Amino acid sequence: MNFADLGLSDELLRAVGDSGYTEPTPIQAQAIPSVLMMKDIIGIAQTGTGKTASFVLPMIDILSHGRSRARMPRSLILEPTRELAAQVAENFDKYGKYQKLSMALLIGGVQMGDQVKALEKGVDVLIATPGRLMDLFDRGKILLSGCNLLVIDEADRMLDMGFIPDIESICQKLPANRQTLLFSATMPPPIKKLSDKFLSNPKHIEVARPATAAANIEQRIVRTSPRSKKSTLIDILKNEKVETAIVFSNRKTTVRDLEQALKREGFRAGQIQGDMDQSSRTAELQRFKDGEINILVASDVAARGLDVKGVSHVFNYDVPWHPDDYVHRIGRTGRAGAKGIAITLATPADDEAVENIEKLTGQKIGSGSKDAKPPEAEKPQAEVKSEAQPEAKSDAKPDREKPARRGRGRSKPTEAANTAPKSPPKPAARRNEQPDAPVVDADDEWNGPVPSFLSASPGTKD
DNA sequence: AAAAAAC
């Protein structure tokens, strides 16, 4: 399977090729032809599966025909956090470079002026967080009646954040005959309801079981006490050769304190959390990507979706109270089949939270992937659902009009394109265009500059 | 228990 087989334009294929990709990930192979045929889609996939490109690529081709009109964007992408929205915008830049496309990034925390100006000129795609979008809409700056393509990304996260009423209200402002793509890592009932209400006859695509930890991430737990937590972390950071790490904490205040403490210890540390103004958030992330700092202390604002290349370690300074968050956090490392190490600091009070995580992932944290088999073994725990069929015979074609088929039935290990290949995990510094572990790979998500010591030059292949 | 998101 090759990108060229998916029905994309030459310009787009060139841009994709420039980025060093040749083979689509399973979700891309399944979604792209359908999106091009204007079908609705429900994609069950986490970030890191190549999900973003699965809608960005076909959208660029769809939008390259036709013209935008003032205040009437032609498509809309909704994202839960500002950083994710920015990340998607970067994808449009990267893959749309040979086509002319206008876009506006509508997120809070920044001046409205430029956003309004862009809207007035007319844009092909709007990438937005719900709050700012609603705000601008209420101010009469946006008409959504010409918006024929809607993407709801990270729907379950939107649910967590209480955005569903906003999403519903936005959906109702769009033309009824639009195309809608909904992506979610899980399908809790409210999301199911939402999709029943706002999607018509969607094609279901599921590429990875939600809430499984990737086999290439070595998970460790370190028992400690609340009092000695900080010194424990510092010891590990010093003794283990930690190249690049994201340190997650449950509280914004802890993030702040910890960043200070690490700096005092001489670490090149920075922070990202929601109490910082947007410019600082952006700047800190950039410093991390640039390699100016190598330790990013973060709240869960950075837990999902953010993909900075080459993060060697993830620390849970606090055990997350929702087991889902654990999976998302550790997914910031070990991408693309590279090895990653996730270290969780646990105090006795965290016992229950740890148990819940182990229940969810079906593996003991302490022993990580050690007690089982090496990552490249035949059947790692965190195997992708084998039902996702990258081969997709010709049923990428329109004939398939089954509604709500929750394709649970088949579990034929097909061609194995989506089961872990034999190849050994690639070193973290390697670029990859071929996910070994679809649960957490994805160079496609983040497109910004990368710490030079973390990544090979783009386009470099093994 | 927290975090995120508009002004």
TrEMBL record:
Q: Which reaction does it catalyse?
A: ATP + H2O = ADP + phosphate + H(+)
Q: Per its UniProt entry, what is the enzyme's top EC class, as one word?
A: hydrolase
Domain (DEAD-box RNA helicase Q) spans 1-29
Q: Which residues form the Helicase C-terminal domain?
A: 216-381
Q: Which family does it belong to?
A: Belongs to the DEAD box helicase family.
Region (Disordered) residue spans: 361-462
**Which molecular function term from Gene Ontology is one that the record holds?**
hydrolase activity
Which keywords label this protein?
Answer: ATP-binding, Cytoplasm, Helicase, Hydrolase, Nucleotide-binding
Quote the cellular component terms of the Gene Ontology held in the record.
Answer: cytosol
Per the UniProt record, which EC number(s) apply here? Answer: 3.6.4.13
Q: What is the name attached to this protein's record?
A: DEAD-box ATP-dependent RNA helicase RhpA
Taxonomic path: Bacteria, Pseudomonadati, Pseudomonadota, Alphaproteobacteria, Sphingomonadales
Query: Domain of life, per the record?
Result: Bacteria
| Basic and acidic residues compositional bias, start-end | 370-404
